[in-house]
Amino acid sequence: MRFTTLNELRAWLDRLAQEHDLIAPRDVDGHVLYRPVASDDEILFDYERPELSAKDYLLPSTEILLRVEKRGSEVTLEEALPDRRQVLFGIRPCDAHGLVVLDALFLEQDPPDLYYRHHRERTTLVGLACPQMWEGCFCTSMGGAPDDPTHLDVLLKPVDGGYAVEPVTGKGMALLEGLALEEREGKPLPVVADAELVPVTPPEKWRALFEDQMWMRHGERCLSCRICAYVCPTCRCFDVTDRVVEERAGVTRIECIRVWDACTSTNYRRVAGGHNPRPTKPERLRNRFYCKFCYYPEDFGPLGCVGCGRCIVSCPVGIDITEVLHDVAERSGG
Amino acid sequence: MNTNVANPMRPYLGQLTGVKDLATGIKLFQIELTEPEGQAAFAGYRPGQFAFVSAFGAGEAPFGITSTPARGPLLEFAVNALGHVTHTLHSLEAGDPVGVRGPLGNWFPMGEIKGRNVVVLGGGIGGAPLRPVIHTILDNRAGYGHLTVLWAARTPDLLVFTDEYDDWRAAPDTELHLTVDRGDENWTSNVGLITQLLEQVAPSLDDTVTITCGPPIMIHFVTLTLQKLGFTLDQMLTTLEARMHCGIGKCGRCNLGEKFICIDGPVFWQSEVAGFLEGFL
Q1: Shortest Cα distance, chain B CAs vs residue A115, angstroms
Q2: Contact A11/B at CB under 8 A
Q3: How close does chain A come to B245, measured CA to CA in Å?
């Protein structure tokens, strides 16, 4: 195996931070989050599951799509795309899996999304395997694993005295050129991932359960707070709006921005005039689960869930996606 | 989809050339696209397609295109002032810049229904995306059978395109029936719901296609009434709406089950709608 020490790894990351937007797990007031870092001292190497996914760096929670300048009747539009390369260090395998789910919509469905594609191309994913599954985790039920290299460019695994380094893609290999590596005997121990498997029911069986009473039971306690979509690595709904940044001397500067949205919000489907075809919480929560396990796979291929478990630990009223999956499986005859 | 290939989220620039009062709270906006790319993209748009119109600084919203390219290069949109973007659009004047993103979505199969009788049912501003259907038939009058237009609004002042009714009535083999929920002192035509008018007019089923747009509740009851009259779901076309944010199947906002109104529609046969997992009502 290829091996590096923590000190070499730190030195490499410190150098990367000079030339890249380096995003890594950080302690922010007691919360572990993927955040921009300026040097290696800010990076956590021993952490559980960051509280938010990494999608913010590919599909930002607020992103400027266009800078608009209006001068009388003259208007100019300019796309706002950052040109620096970006490294996501310490991303967990489930979060990389989430990006592949987003790829199926934003890259593979025509027309591709210019902004997402740009971020995806400028980004290299350096993952750090989870040493175990955490509270709420069920990645192994969604086709992942705590040490799954599949969706990453480089995977690091903690081993005695340092890290085993596994380049996965050419992009990852190129980034590793600056890291001092040595060949060592042996290989990292597999991570114990023995969490009980959650059943995934195929889309066609979901269709038969659309009017099931279970949606009332799960949905009536929903608070429409939308935290589930906010923490989710695959939720991708967005809103687009304009904001006026400056009005001066006959010139108006405007930003056309894209922001995250969530189908569990009260007025998500409301139209001008007031009609709302999805007026109740059970209907909206049902849409969330159908999107992930019925519509998304039917329309775009992959399941809309990677089993990160964040929605389970974040939900203020204890709505548990694995409980829903068990209920669906049970009602579909296992 | 004929939208901006390099960046489908970037609107084409345009200029308002005319703003007309269409009905109480509803204005007609005429837009000239000023960039060659925009003019090329909109060169062959079809009846039933939609586009986003931006009022720079307020944002953009989707509207059915109410013009046809056959009648000139200006794009027309009927806009009811109901929210932030639409109120801002209403404050604009001829000469002001706007953005247009599109044309988006599918269209009424005007080629496929050639030779058949057509019943057009429009409720309120739902008449906007149907006007291109009427214009296409009137401009190719021999290409279609009998045209029956049933046009409704809550009150007489909310009827749209009133200045065109004489032309529609004068066209050969064409009839126009108006109705309002509540009349006023000058109103001499029908009073009642469009479904009542439909039962009264009772158009022939024979080789006929119906095309309906209006509030969801109207589409629902018109469909039931048409069935009562003997029409089948595969004779009925409709166009649906949602408060979309992208128009290209990405933002998630307009899903009906696994379908997206923006890319699978907005035009659907009722026989398709009947098979949707989730209803539009």
Answers
A1: 9
A2: no
A3: 6
* Chain A contacts in chain B segment 229-258 (CB below 8 A): 241-243, 245-246, 248-253, 255-258
**Average pLDDT of chain A?**
96
The answer to whether the bond into B132 is cis (omega within 30° of 0) is: no
DSSP classification of residue B95: T
Residue A334 has pLDDT above 80, yes or no: no
- Helix runs in chain A, H state only: 6-19, 93-106, 114-122, 170-175, 203-207, 214-219, 227-231, 281-290, 296-300, 310-314, 321-331
B59/A79 touch (CB, cutoff 8 Å), yes or no: no
Q: Return the percentage of chain B with pLDDT > 70, whole number.
A: 99
Touching B: A residues 151-190, CB under 8 Å: none
Tokens of B184: 């006023």
Asked if B277 and A109 come within 8 Å (Cβ–Cβ), the reply is no
- pTM here is 0.95
Quote the distance between the C-alpha of residue A27 and its chain's center.
19
Q: What is the CA radius of gyration of chain A?
A: 22
Which of A65, A71, A103, A114 is most worth mutating to test chain B (most B CB atoms within 10 A of its CB)?
A114
**Tens digit of pLDDT for each residue in A263-301?**
999 999 999 889 999 999 999 999 999 999 999 999 999
Please write the tens of the pLDDT for every residue from A110-131. 999 999 999 999 999 999 999 9
* Stretch (H or E) spanning B261: helix B261-264
Contact A111 B1 (CB under 8 A): yes
| B257:A290 CB<8 A | yes
In the prediction, which pLDDT does A155 show? 98
Instruction: Give me the sheet containing B50-55, strands edge to edge.
Output: B59-64, B50-55, B97-104, B12-23, B26-33, B75-80
A234 sits in the region (left: phi over 0; alpha: psi -120 to 50; else beta) called alpha
Taking an 8 Å cut-off on Cβ atoms, the answer to whether A261 and B6 are in contact is no
Burial profile A35-74: b = 16 or more Cβ within 10 angstroms, e = fewer? bebeebebbbbebebbebbbbbbbbbeebbbbebbbeeee
Interface contact A110-B215, CB threshold 8 A? no
> pLDDT tens, B217-231?
999 999 999 999 999
Phi, psi of B168 (to 5 degrees): -65, -45
Tally of CB atoms within 10 A around B15: 16
Locate B159 and state its tokens: 């009827």
* Inter-chain residue contact A65 with B9, CB threshold 8 Å: yes
Residues 68-87 of A with CB under 8 A from B: 68, 70, 73-75, 77, 79
Contact B52, B100 (CB under 8 A): yes
Q: How far apart, in whole angstroms, are the C-alpha atoms of residue A200 and residue B87?
A: 47
Nearest to B202 by CA among B239, B175, B242: B175
Burial code (b: 16+ CB inside 10 Å, e: under 16) for A260-295 equals bbbbbbeebbbbbeeebbbeebbbbbbbbbbbbbbb
**Does residue A248 belong to the interface with chain B, where contact is any CB pair within 8 Å?**
no
Tokens of A98: 């989430």
Distance of CA B33 to the CA centre of its chain: 20
